[in-house]
Amino acid sequence: MQAFDTDLRNRIIKLVKGILEQNSLSADVKPQAKLVDVGLTSMDMVNLMLGVEAEFDFTIPQAEITPDNFRSVETLERMVATQLKLATAA
């Protein structure tokens, strides 16, 4: 399970860094850091949401599109892991 979690976290960090690079920004993206503090704007958050959906091949339920779930890599990782577990259980 640990390898899955590390892979999940790395894929999310890669998405965040990709969005920052599009804005000519670079940051050391730590799992606990607030995404707005590393440089993501509200429009970037929309791009991140779409990127997560494409990367992990699922649609984020409307109820899960909350500021709390998109606060940091860590919170995003928890939401994605939960959605992936629900998808495999279905």
Summarize the SSE layout with pairings:
Elements: H1 2-22, H2 35-38, H3 42-56, H4 73-89
Helix pairs in contact: 1-3, 1-4
How is this structure best described in words?
- This protein has helices at about 1-20, 35-40, 40-55, 75-90.
- It has about 90 residues and is mostly helical.
- Helix 1 (about 1-20) crosses helix 4 (about 75-90).
- It starts with a helix and ends with a helix.
- About 20% of the residues are buried.
Low-pLDDT stretches: none
What is the number of helices?
Answer: 4
Number of strands: 0
Using only CA atoms, what is the Rg? Answer: 12 Å
Question: How much helix is in the residues?
Answer: 55-70%
Strand-residue fraction? under 5%
The SSE order reads HHHH
Structural class: mainly alpha
Shape designation: globular
Give the overall pLDDT as a whole number.
Answer: 93
Distance between the termini: 20 Å
User: What does the main sheet amount to?
Assistant: none
Concise synopsis of the structure shown:
The protein is 63% helix and 0% strand.
